Input
Amino acid sequence: MLGDWCPPVSGGCTTAVSITVPASDGEALVLAASATGAWRVSPEGTFEALAVAGAGAIDAHDVSASGVAVGSAFIAGALQAVRWNTKGAAAVLPPIKSRLPTEALAVGLDGTVVGTSGGRAVWWQRSGAPIALLPVGSSSRGSSSRGSSSRGSSSKATAITGNSTKSHPLGFAIFGTHAGGTRLFRVTGPSNWTSLGPFDAPAQFVGFDIVDTPQPDLFVAHAHTLLYQRVAFVWTLEGGLHRFDRSIINLPSGPNPPIEVVAANSSAVVLVNLGASPAPYTLVQLDPGDTNGDGRINAADLALLLATWGPVPADRRGAADFDGDGDVDAADLGFLLTSWN
Output
């Protein structure tokens, strides 16, 4: 579970900031932080302090399924990115240029790390070598890619999904924000980036936070309005970036409070909070079965499923690949028939 421990381990309250479930044993591993430090928390509840020699203000941001943790610490008066291995040993990750402030925000299955250095999105290789992902002043308009630039502002990488060192049916991607946090981007390799928008009335949003990225072709996020309200968004490779309340099929009828997205899984099932309620967390299903966009699941969708039977092309989630495993097969057929309307 993600949440707070009070009374604290030491000092102020301790908050769980990330959780992962290693595939080997299915036991959840939690990363926690407070005003006094950061910890890895075992399934049994044992706290392991994450230390950095000579550092203060240690903060933690993410933990991988293998137990590798990342975060930041002040060392010699400068904010620096840190990666802790599975045994707790810390490695300080270098900035893209000397003496720039640097922060590690997410770690991938392959052990590589993403974050920011001197206001630019960075990808650290397993060796620790940094690669700047977006150019200085990355474009804030259109669907820019492969190094397009204009007058703009800072970028940071906040999520990494897939595995850059192994074959994956949906590939590998890094996500983050640019143009001072008002736009979202996707990276699939050094100097290969794409602005994802928003392109629909973008001036109403002052910043984005990516909440979860279960697959390289899917993420959920929150946008912040000028009035400090949060608006839920969903992005898919095939459908682009859309408001979440315009992309789901089982939103309760009648007036609804703002949707808060909490998490998502590889089958495009999203956990949301619909506000004060006896059951505040609701599973909301995206509409992958509606392959032709008519709001129904019927013979037309079945025909497309049969026409695309077999492996899905690389870097795509097939419209009929409902479980996201890279193949349109009997499991997807069963899902469609169960959802028939």
